[in-house]
Design brief:
This protein is mostly helical and 118 residues long. Helices cover 80% and strands 0% of the residues.
Length: 118
């Protein structure tokens, strides 16, 4: 079943190994395995991997019973992503500042050069 799912989902070796380690292929029901692969890939895409991925997948065995813990995990990851986004925005602000500084220097230089030509 693992090879079939790997082809079906276009899984890389890394993803296949991650899914094996997370215990995704221990189920017999192909539909359940496909759902767990889809969920695991989404979680991995969100930056949840390794031990935490296995933990969250285990919680999804009974999502209604584990709703509070699942929400906590997802909100924690949201916070991590949001902090990374803020860090990237600060970097963008720095680049914009440098671009604006360079633009002003160029404009001042051009203005000075034109005055000297007159």
């Amino acid at each position: 079943m693992m090879e079939e799912m790997a082809k079906r989902f276009g899984l890389s070796r890394h993803q296949l190994q991650m899914l094996q380690e997370a215990g995704v292929f221990t189920q017999e029901d192909e539909r359940v395995v496909a759902q767990r692969i889809s969920l695991a890939l989404s979680l991995d895409n969100l930056g949840i991997s390794g031990e935490e991925l296995r933990y969250v997948l285990a919680l999804y065995h009974d999502p209604l019973r584990n709703q509070k813990e699942l929400l906590l995990c997802l909100r924690r990851q949201r916070g991590i992503i949001l902090e990374a986004l803020h860090a990237q925005n600060r970097r963008l602000d720095e680049i914009d500042y440098l671009i604006e500084t360079l633009r002003r220097l160029t404009a001042e230089h051009d203005s000075s050069t034109q005055r000297r030509k007159r």
